Amino acid sequence: MTTRPEIVFEPLSADLEPTVVVLAGDDIALASRARELDQKSGGALTKAAEAAQYKGRKKSTLEVLAPPRLGGVNRAILLGTGKGSDLKENDWVLLGGTAAAAIGARKVKSASFIVEAPESGGTKPAELAALLAFGANLRHYEFSKYLTKTAKPEDDASEADGLKKLVIHCADPDKARNVYGRYAAVANGTMTARDLVNEPANALGPVEFADRVKELESTGLEVEILDEAQLADLKMGSLLAVAQGSVRPARVAIMQWHGAKSKRAKPIMLVGKGVVFDTGGISIKPAAGMEDMKGDMGGAAAVVGTMQALAERKANANVIGIIGLVENMPSGTAIRPGDIVRAHSGQTVEILNTDAEGRLVLVDLISYVQERFKPRLIIDLATLTGAIMVALGKEYAGLFANDDKLAADLLDASNATGEKLWRMPLDKGYDKMLESKNADIKNIGGRWAGSCTAAAFIKYFVKDTPWAHLDIAGTAMDAPKSEISPSWGAGWGVRLLDRYISDNHEKAEK
Ligand code: BES
Ligand code: MN
Ligand code: ZN
């Protein structure tokens, strides 16, 4: 849906496009190819830097127009790395995003990016080129399919439009292209997640969402869609209770990827909340800001995007994704506060607030997959509570886990990718807050610790499986824009989950 540039890798010596980005370190140290350009132009780059008092500080840019004697090159953009040896993996990704923004703002059709850093810390050159290309790729996104007028040139929204081709010049283009392959898959998955979150709910109901998932069979994923009759046969009474107020029927989508050596090795299970729109139901939400609830399927979007990335890069692991697709509406057929429903596990739930619907969807999926797939571990993602934003704002997603190793591994992946997690508590005290007089459990815990009681509710349905719950209400949508994330629908979680899987479940099984 977004016009994204083709990214190609060429040797450092290859011909340059008219617009060139070069990296400049602290006090404008230039790497050899950039120094060569500088010398050829009679020091135009370093002179311009001096005149502008440009020091090559991290993420700062300086544009040098019409440098003399450089043939077809008519614009050089210096991009500061600061002290390159200080930069970590994700800093290079962010720099790639900054480069893409600088190029995009110039509305050129093609550009060269000379990826040879004056200092690059521990990052190897091919890896560096791939990381910068990854960042540039992630930056190029816009959700413009419903704009019938062409965006005005001064409009930020058209930034992603112009560039058709980005040439990455680096020392070992074959190797860089190879490393980049897997990042390209992760970027594709992130774009899919963004598209799903941004799509309005009138266009993306449970059925349409399931259709989109089905299309991913082309990547090699095995996709199974369960319809309402099948969900009723499976006795998913808690999930179906949420769906019953909507004229649009529920769906559950299951995506399987068996890339491990042993196809029968226990799978990793990813579970996503896919509430295509959350009005709150009979416990209806206030009007202000309700439009954001088109993004209440951000967990499902992250699961779908991750599964796509794993399939595209042919991950060496067995991973199954499952998402519950429903719409939470108030109507004559909707659930009421006080209703008691029977979940797939057989346990009863007293629904005291119909706006605490996400957990009702998740627990039926979790009970079902424990029984059917016997997963080695479960990670669920859900835009579950407003309370997580009260606690962590939009910087961090909340991480709840019944297993310290799983929590630690997820935190490591979080540090590597910059998709930030903060561990939150599970506690018997929160379990107690969910005790109901009339049923086995109630779906809300009262005024305090709303994210913790939501997690405690899910935990009630988890058996002996290592499990982590990520509350992504703050990060999945309307999160602060960054160098690599220009979109309302952030696509949050795809990079994190992909990294968690590759670092912890692929190496040993090769
Ligand atoms: N989808 C919402 C949580 C949410 C709120 C996500 C704002 C993103 C932005 C969830 O279904 C919900 O309504 N949670 C309630 C729970 C309460 C009724 C116990 C909440 O957080 O207020
Ligand atoms: Mn709700
Ligand atoms: Zn919700």
Overview of this protein structure:
- The chain is of the alpha/beta class and 510 residues long.
- The protein folds into 2 domains: 154 residues, 3-Layer(aba) Sandwich (Leucine Aminopeptidase, subunit E, domain 1); 325 residues, Aminopeptidase (3-Layer(aba) Sandwich), CATH 3.40.630.
- The protein is built from 15 helices and 17 strands.
- Strands 7-8-10-9-13-17-14-15 form an 8-stranded mixed beta sheet, sandwiched between helices. Strands 1-6-5-2-4-3 form a 6-stranded mixed beta sheet, sandwiched between helices.
- Helix 4 links the parallel strand 5 and strand 6.
- It is elongated.
- Bound molecules: ligand BES, manganese (II) ion and zinc ion.
- The site of zinc ion has 5 residues, from strand 9.
Question: What compounds sit in this structure?
Answer: ligand BES, manganese (II) ion, zinc ion
For the largest sheet, list the strands in their spatial order: 7-8-10-9-13-17-14-15
Tally of alpha and pi helices: 15
CATH architecture of the largest domain: 3-Layer(aba) Sandwich
- Major β-sheet annotation: 8 strands, mixed
β-sheet strand percentage: 15-25%
CATH class of the largest domain: Alpha Beta
The fold-level CATH name of the largest domain is Aminopeptidase
Can you tell me the overall shape? Answer: elongated
Summarize the amount of helix as a percent range. Answer: 25-40%
Structural class, please?
alpha/beta
Quick structural gist:
By secondary structure, the chain is of the alpha/beta class. The chain has helices at residues 32-40, 44-51, 89-105, 125-139, 173-198, 206-215, 228-233, 237-243, 298-312, 358-373, 387-392, 404-417, 428-432, 450-459, 494-505; strands spanning 6-11, 19-25, 61-65, 75-82, 110-114, 165-170, 222-226, 251-258, 268-278, 318-328, 339-342, 348-351, 377-382, 397-401, 421-423, 441-442, 467-471. The strands form three sheets. Strands 7-8-10-9-13-17-14-15 form an eight-stranded mixed sheet, sandwiched between helices. Strands 1-6-5-2-4-3 form a six-stranded mixed sheet, sandwiched between helices. A three-stranded mixed sheet has the order 11-12-16, covered by helices on one side.
